[in-house]
TrEMBL record:
UniProt source species: Candidatus Companilactobacillus pullicola
GO CC aspect terms: plasma membrane
Protein name (Swiss-Prot/TrEMBL): histidine kinase
Sequence ranges assigned to domain Histidine kinase in this UniProt record: 248-459
SUPFAM superfamilies: ATPase domain of HSP90 chaperone/DNA topoisomerase II/histidine kinase, Homodimeric domain of signal transducing histidine kinase
E.C. no: 2.7.13.3
Top-rank taxon, per record: Bacteria
Amino acid sequence: MNDRQLTYQELISNGIKKLVIIITLSISALILIIVGVQQSLLTVHEAQGQMMGLNRANIDDIPSFIHWNNQNNRHSKQNTVIRVKTNKSSITATSGREGQVIMTSSASKKFIAQRKFSVFGKNVVYVNGYGFFLFYSQKESDTTYQIWVSLNKLINSMILLLIIISIVVFITLGFGTWWAQQLAAKLSAPTIQLVNETRSTIKDSEVDQPTLTVPKSPQEIHELGNAFNDLLTAQNERLQREKDFVSNASHELRTPIAAVRGNINLIKRHGDKHPEVIPESLDFIDEESLRMQNLIENLLHLSRADRAKVILQDENLSEITEQIGQHYEASIPHKMNLEIEPDLHISGHCDTLKQIIVALLDNANKYSDDDAPITLSLKSIDHKVELSVADLGMGIPDDQKKLIFQRFYRVDTSHSTEIKGSGLGLSIVSQLVKLNNGSIEVLNNQPRGSIFKITFDEI
């Protein structure tokens, strides 16, 4: 059993070959049938006409037969044998295409004496030694009329036509096969080119993959190439994000680890002679280790958010937001403005919704002065529920609004040591919002600051 997979070119070529064969043979068979039927009908019509003429002429002697024969047989297109038999005599005549009439002779007597076999009914007979004939017989009173019209020329013409058609079919199939191969190669060339380029892009999956050169036609291959390019672009972006993540995570962890080891070495070298450095170094070690702990926890949160699958159900977002806002206000120096419409429901996950609100309030708390208020609002607009946290902090430049949801991105890097954080909080928020089928955006607050607005579908 041959399990070899056919190539695109072979499939196209075989399909076109079959189509050419079917069309050619169908046309040839149709021509043969039409010509054969037409010639057969003409021969039958001619034979029936002669038989009708014999019947109407009421021939009963040789002169009347000769007169009729001179008037009719000269138009015959086939070799014809006519016999008129009465009780007294039997007259036989043969004629050809030129209208020559030969009366009763030894040849005609020999023809009459030959055995005749019926073929395809009683009207088509085979005469031994002479071939196929169309035979009609009719009796009127004491006179019997018989006519044999030769089918040999018709058969020979059909054979010649069949030979000519066979030659044409052979030539057509040869040309069709060559044309099919050329067309198949042309049609499959863009696909093969795309496949070869695709294979070259996957040799090293760890580096950025170049986009494919997309053929302009056919349209299907063009769209397939564009889809591949979109996939490669997404893969390149993913690889770049992973590289940035590893680089940023390494950098964020390297700094506290270096600080911890530096203070440990400081204690080892000077702890005996200068014991006053020990408490200060231990406090610094504790602070940096706590920073590493927070960073690792955030990384775990982000990893879980990337892979999490939560079950969404009907949640009263108004109650969740009101509860978190009241509890959070007691733990910060800022004034909290709660603008929450009652009884707004969404399809969401309670724990992740709480985590989103707390993270946004933490962010507003870090980037706002102590005397600046924070506004937590929830309202319904056009069957959408909008949750927003507004602050009067330093604000976010327009060109960085989309970047702040990337991992480890910090808007004001010059204050990274003053404002504690790992740059992962908003990235985690973005993932959790997606898990709850929401969308998040950043707007400018007035007179300054930022508004983080999340939109959910209301139920």
